[in-house]
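REQUEST ID: PR-0412
SUBMITTED BY: lab tech R.K.
PRIORITY: routine
TASK: structure prediction, single protein chain
INPUT:
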Amino acid sequence: MNNDELDKYVDGLANGTLSDELGLEDEFSDAELEEAILLAARISEEAKRSDKENRITDNRYQTATVKRNGKKGWLVLLICMAALLIGTSIYIVYYFASHKRSADSIEEMRNKVRSDYKYNDEDYISGAANVVIPVDIEELKEINPDIYAWLYIPGTEVDYPILQSDNAGYYLNHDSEGNRSATGAIYTENLNNKEFEDFNTVIYGHNMKNGSMFGGLHSYEDPDFFDEHRTIYVYTSSYVIKYTVFAAYRYDDRHILKSFDFNDENVKKKYIDYIFEMKNLYSTVKNDQNVDIDSNILTLSTCCGDDDERWLVQAVMADKKASLP
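STATUS: complete
OUTPUT:
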């Protein structure tokens, strides 16, 4: 890819013709497109700078030997730059295309297997006779057998299938249909059971800049948002499970399920005490929920800006209702 071709690529990103050709204009935020434009522009400027330095160097050295050696060196450099430009261009297209494919896949799942039924606290708490599971988990399993539940947080964009693979990191870079994707999927590791009966079930998702996947969890940094979005639902093939959010905070990047022996009641107690005694600028903790060693905690985990930190939103199981035939 020469400089003229790269400039055309950058212009295509900037004026929207490239995103039109790829069908991405409705799937990604202005910030994401701007990020791609800036990245391509920086590469373009670097290529122009190198080309300019090459011309200056050629003018500076007059002897045939020096010219010959210099040309060989610059030829190698230009080949490397071309490979870098091509690789970066491919990655940018892959990044946006995989976003679009994953978003389309999730939306298709929602439209295909989800009813219009929405719970509200009053109906749910009243113990309505007919408990409705608004997602057909069995049909989702026909799409991908690793899907075993659905996660929904009213008032947010979190509305996704939950997957689990024997390969712990598989859904870091594969979407809900099992296709390779930069977006990944919402998943648990097989250290947790699929019935949400563990003391602490940890669900992972990428922190996407457009707010998709678990990017929206950072909204819980706002105490007002926290107060207004404390209900989480998990749907399985047999149950509707309701959780109440009680904590949101920054944590280190340790693997929670491998770092704590939750079979030990003392470990459970110390873990709970740590959360409720936490005092830092990046935490909101409410002590109005009963959380003890017999509780079932749901931990939603995503990235922060720092590689050595995680953003956690935690909720405690408030109720679990079986579907009636």
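NOTES: The CA atoms of residues 173 and 182 lie 5 Å apart.
REVIEWED BY: pending
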